[in-house]
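Fold it.
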Amino acid sequence: MSETPSLTIAELAARSGVATTALRFYESQGLLTAARTGGNQRRYPRSALRRVAVIRAARAMGVPLADVATALAALPSGRTPTAADWARMSRRWRKTLDTRIAVLTQLRDDLDGCIGCGCLSLQRCRLFNPDDRAADLGDGPRYLLPDGEQPPNR
């Protein structure tokens, strides 16, 4: 019976576009597994390429590694993710991603107004200082000054 060809960490890094340090980290987090040679060198199954692709796609969407690890750990016998597995994973993450997109869109829209006003006192800032709550703390850029510190005299 012939063995399935395996990949060294350098080969996996070159084929996947992921640094060897990241691959070692993924392994330490249980996202990847490698066999060891007699000389204690890592040997990854070729299926590790697909696992790394899933990890990269999930990370590009902003999915935390802990969530990726949970999803990969749920696969039977730690097998290689299939297209159907990816569809299930991405459906699970969709609500979180939609929420994140909504928050980032609101942040972007609020920052446009904040940058445009040029306000250093943050008096009109809906993002960091709604209803000018910072005015109760004193003069100047209250959120930029340490507690109790007064702004320099003009």
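The two ends are 84 Å apart (CA to CA).
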